[in-house]
Specification:
The complex is a heterodimer of chains A (112) and B (113). Chain A is mostly beta strands. Chain A is built from no helices and eleven strands. In chain A, a hairpin with a 7-residue loop joins β9 and β10. In chain A, 36% of the residues are buried. The mean pLDDT of chain A is 92. Chain B is 0% helix and 56% strand. In chain B, the strands form two sheets. In chain B, strands 2, 4, 5, 6, 9, 10 and 11 form a seven-stranded mixed beta sheet that branches. A four-stranded antiparallel beta sheet of chain B has the order 1-3-8-7, with no helix packed on it. The N and C termini of chain B lie far apart (33 Å). The model of chain B has no long low-confidence stretch (mean pLDDT 94). The chains are: A mainly beta (112), B mainly beta (113). At the A-B interface, β4, β5 and β9 of A face β5 of B.
Chain lengths: 112, 113
Amino acid sequence: GQQLNQSPQSMFIQEGEDVSMNCTSSSIFNTWLWYKQDPGEGPVLLIALYKAGELTSNGRLTAQFGITRKDSFLNISASIPSDVGIYFCAGQRLSGTYKYIFGTGTRLKVLA
Amino acid sequence: DTAVSQTPKYLVTQMGNDKSIKCEQNLGHDTMYWYKQDSKKFLKIMFSYNNKELIINETVPNRFSPKSPDKAHLNLHINSLELGDSAVYFCASSQDPGSTEAFFGQGTRLTVV
């Protein structure tokens, strides 16, 4: 089945640094979502994006819906140790079965 | 109160056995899902039910059979377990099929030996 490609696959950063990750698709989505999965837990929604070009923030997190509707970006500013986890993008089409297609994940490790 | 709860959290079983995973949501949502997360952490949808009716059935072996006795419950039964079935299985729910946000359970780590 289709998967969305996320980059980078994993990253180690120092506490306080800013983080950027992206998600790309070969096809168009109507909605882009960003989830975070903590170890041993299920994913939790961070940000939802509904319009091409939209920029949305949630605390230190900012996400953008790409103009082409085939990509999305997530930035985390001033990272802290509890930001560690796996970040997933997900795309949703508002037609058919509405199912989410999840990205391959970006594993973030923050060094204190 | 846990919004989406799965049992058991861990399941270790031998090849060939039949096992079930249960899921319950207390959010009043109409739609429930089963996802599989493999060892590389890829998340893939398996099934989705809306008001007890199957609406998504991905290419999943027919050894996997979901059952929704009511819209608050979606159980997953797996027959003749194989080594490749080892994964973390997540249950999730959303208000309706078109909802943006899905709420996930904590997952069931299935290990087939």
